[in-house]
Amino acid sequence: MLTSQYDFRLISFGEDEVSAEYYARAERVYLESIGAMARTKTNEIAYWRDRYNSQFAKRGDRLFVYGLELKSEVVGFALVFYFQAHSLVVFDHIAVKEASRQLGAFFEFKKLMAQDLLERNLQIDYVFAEIVTSKRGDPHPINSQLLIQLLKQSDFRVAHIEYYTPSIIEEEYGTKIETALLVRRNDHASQIGSRLLLSLIECVLDDLYIRWYTPHSKNIKAFKQQIEVLRSFYRDQLKNTEVVELNGNWKEAHVPVSTAKPPVNTRRKPTVKQPESEFRGLPATALIIFLVLLTSAALAGLSYESGFSAEKTLTFFIASLFALLVILGIWHRAAASQAKTVLRLLSKLLGHDKDVG
To answer: CA-CA distances (angstroms) from residue 195 to 6, 126, 159, 239, 242?
Structure first.
């Protein structure tokens, strides 16, 4: 058992000795955290927990059924597959009790599982996580975007391909479930070769889905048919591209690689040209006019108090107004325009008949 500095403890069911009641509590966390559309039956998990590793020992493939404990309480449950021939790990389910999600349980759980896998000296080059994004049925009680963002914080990247998982509900075999495929590479590359990605996906189809459901499905022929449909779909999608981006947005995950095009907007909104000024809008203009008039009036008042006649005071007021508008005209076109009007008025007061252009 591994323990973190925050009192979280990792349990490996099938290896660590725990009671049946303890395992039942872990199952309850799983049932309450995974939606019906994506939830594997608990009797199937128990079946493979007891025989998977021995049955596929020659191939080096492993199944890990993990639990997370916090202060003697089970707060997490996870299924993790390892496929030796492809150096691939698949996190099939990660469930965390709702009350513990705010305590960093998800990150501690993931960190402890990663540490355990490394200590087993497994060659791991790629890690997959399939997050159901379909709006149909009951995919997951937790928002899929949140799950994806949590995984992205752990160096997972969304593969920019149209990805689906097969329906595990017998009545709905043939229904493709919209899913985001998240990939983590040890070299942290932001691309993956299309042929390599296809081989990893086919590993999941054959060694995870078909292998798991062969002893349990009542209509395995129909189940395998939907797997073959998905296989052909991925081969067609990836055959005309050399690499797949691993930095795609989860909302774009269902844009096919070979046909992805930016949306075409047939109607363009009219472009409104903004005035070339730092002073925009009626309130700013009104404030400018008020300040100009106030300053000019103050200057004129000082002129009148100094003994100037009313005519000279008015002339001084208009001249002050003109000077201020010229200065403001450097930043504000409207002020420059008004300065010309004031200049015409000042010209008339001074006895000049020529218009000022």
So the answer is: 42, 14, 14, 8, 8
